[in-house]
Amino acid sequence: MQKSDTKRHLVDAVKELLHSGEDFTVKDISQRAYTNVAAVNYYFGDKNTLVNIALQELIDVYREKIIETLRQDMPSTNEYIESFLTLVSQMYLDNKGVIRYIVRTDTGNKPELIESFLFDDELTRLVYEKMELMTGEKRPEVQFCNYMIALSSFILPLLFECQNDDDKSSGFGLIALQSEDMRRVFVTQLMKLFT
Q: What is the C-alpha to C-alpha distance for residues 83 and 64, in angstroms, rounded to an integer?
């Protein structure tokens, strides 16, 4: 196997293991990638570096989907928020294991992962533009605070879901937002915070 193929197989193996939400070892990674255990350290130095590369690739996909949603023209702010909510809740459902792993495991890279949603120029620029349309507020410090409030409204339900060890919803998390009626209620209540 070529060096680049081996590295790609290792990263892809970690992505698969991350989706399980369970802790895993270097041996698990190497078995999944059909390589030997030494390949992880040889190509990446250690498990955390490899895991962080896989996590960053997954997060980059999430960010791009969010950016794509924010670029779309929609007639109302409520539709933006509802489509954002739908996207975030679906991304959670598709990637429960990954998110649980991030929340429950010390990868040594959480600040960088979080910053990718806070300080990414294109993402935050688009969010601030939508916030300005919604609130009429142009001051960056107020836009930042509004973004933190909106982001927090997604984080708490996410944490509720991550605390469940099984696939059952607590009834308070993002899974509840799969219901169109619940999303409308959530969007309506969220909009009240900004108007």
A: 14
